Amino acid sequence: MRIVLGVGGGIAAYKVASLLRLFTEAGHNVTVIPTEASTRFVGSATWEALSGNPVSNSVFDDVHQVNHVRLGHEADLVVVAPATADLLAKAATGQAGDLLTNTLLMAHGPVLFAPAMHTEMWQHAATRANVETLRGRGAAVLEPATGRLTGADSGPGRLPEPEAIFAAAMALVEGRQDFQLPLAGRTITISAGGTREPLDPVRFLGNRSSGKQGVALAVAARNAGANVRLLAAHMEVPPPAGVEVVQVETALQLREAALAAAADSDVVIMSAAVADFRPAEVSDTKIKKRDDRSDPVITLVRNPDILLELVELRNSTVRGEGHQLIVGFAAETGDSDGDVLAHAEAKLQRKGCDLLVVNHVGTDKVFGQDTTSVVILARSGSEPQEASGTKTEVSAAIISRIAFELNAVSPRA
Predict the structure, then answer these.
(1) How far apart are CA 374 and CA 131, in angstroms?
(2) pLDDT single digits (tens) 162-194
C-alpha cells in the first residue's frame, strides 16, 4: 500500500518516527512529507532513513514529476500526525501553501488526521469547527489522547500512541468503523500477572499466572486509543510499549497501587491473579530444615479483597456508581456445589463489579497458554457473551465490550 505520512510542526513529531516504522515493517511504501516547522523537531534525514524514500516539503522539488498532484493521486492512504491546530485549519479551509496541503487537496483515498496540541487549542471553537468541517467532507479525525502535555499541563490534546494510530489507519483502509478509537481520551488501569507473597528471603507463595492476558488487554486498550496504566505483578512477558507501568509484587502493594490509580481512571480491569492469602509472618532469614525433622507451621492470613474495595470506593464518591466501569476476572473450577458459571454469577453479585470475565481454569488451561475461552457476565443482567481464540483476540473482544458499556452509560459528544 502506498502511504503519504504528513508530519506537522509539533513536539509530538518525534513519536511519528515509531509510526513510520510500523508502516514500513508492515510492508507499506511510505512517503513522508514534513512541514517546514516540523523539521525543527525531527530532521528530513530521519524520515529518509526510516522510509527509504526521498523527503521534501516544497512544491518546487522534482517539478517534472508534478509531486503536488502525483502524491495525492497515487496514495492509497494519507495520514497526518501530529495534526496541529494550524494544519487542521489549513486543511479545513483548503489552503495549499506547501507540498503537504497540496497533497491533501489532491488525495483520492482515505485521509486520517491524528491531532496533537494544547488542551485549550483542541477545545477552542475554531478548532472544533475545523474538525467538524473535515469530518463532514469524509476525512477521519481521531480524538486526541488525554495525558501529560508539553510542560506541566495535562488534558486532552496528547498524540495517541503510534500503535493506536496505526490500528486506526488500517481499520480505516479496511472500511471498518472502529477507526475512531472508541476509548480515545479514556484512562484505563489494568492489573496483570500474579502476586507473590514472601515466606522468607528466598521463598514465596505464588500462582501460575504468566501475565499474558493482562498484557494483551493493555495492548488492545492502547490500540483503542486509551491511556493505559499497567499494574504489573510477576509476569513472564514484557509490558507493551506506549503504556505506563507500575511494578508491584504482593497483594498489599497491588491494593495500594490500584486504589491510587482508580482516582483518575474511567475503567479499572483487575485481571491479575491475586493471592487470597499471605503468610502471617515473614522470616528475615531462610527457613531451614530442623534437625528434629519437625515440619514448619505456616499460618496464613486473608489478603484484602481489592476488587470489592474498588467497587465500594467508587460507589462512595460524589459521582457514585456509573461514573467508572470496574471489570473483574474470575478463574473458576466447578465442584460439588456448582459449575463454573454458577460460582461466577455468585461472585459477580458478591463483588458488585460491572463486568466479570470468567475463565475455566486447570493445570493445562488458561495460565501460561496463548489461547483462552471466556464468558463475559454483566451485573445489568444482559445475555452472557462468549469469546475464544488467542489471548489477543479475546482481549480485543473484552475491550470492545468495555467501549460499548462506556459509551452506553456516558457517550462522548
Answers:
(1) 39
(2) 998 998 999 899 887 667 788 888 999 999 999
What are the cell numbers at 265? 481512571
Q: Annotate 158-180 with b (16+ C-beta within 10 A) or e (fewer).
A: bbbbbbbbbbbbbbbbeeeebbb
**Residue whose C-alpha cell reads 469469546 in the numeric block:** 387
227 is catalytic: no
Note whether 267 and 135 are same-domain residues.
no
Same domain, 176 and 325: no
26: left (phi over 0), alpha (psi -120 to 50) or beta: alpha
- What one-character DSSP code corresponds to residue 97? S
Q: Are 223 and 164 in contact (CB under 8 A)?
A: yes
User: Which CATH number does the domain housing residue 339 bear?
Assistant: 3.40.50.10300
Question: Domain residues for 70?
Answer: 2-180
Q: Where are the alpha helices (DSSP H) in 153-277?
A: 162-173, 212-223, 251-261
pLDDT tens, residue by residue, 21-39: 999 999 999 999 999 999 9
- In a shared domain, residues 164 and 220: no
One domain for residues 282 and 207: yes
Whether pLDDT at 259 is above 60: yes
Instruction: Supply 134's cell numbers.
Output: 473535515
Residue 128: CB atoms within 10 Å = 13
Judgement on whether residues 227 and 273 belong to the same structural domain of the protein: yes
**For 219, left (φ over 0), alpha (ψ -120 to 50), or beta?**
alpha
- Domain's final residue, options 116, 149, 180: 180
DSSP E strand boundaries for 84-153 = 111-115, 140-141, 145-148
Write phi, then psi, for 5 (nearest 5 degrees).
-110, 105
DSSP state of 362: B
Domain count, the chain: 2
Coil, strand or helix at 32:
strand
Cα–Cα distance, 78 to 137 (Å, whole number): 15
Last residue of a domain, one of 156, 180, 204: 180
Q: What is the pTM of this model?
A: 0.74
Chain Cα centroid distance, residue 130: 27
C-alpha dist (Å) from residue 110 to 24, 75, 86, 137, 175: 18, 9, 21, 11, 9
Q: Up-side HSE of residue 186: CA atoms within 13 Å toward CB?
A: 30
Catalytic annotation, pick one of 102, 130, 207, 303: 207
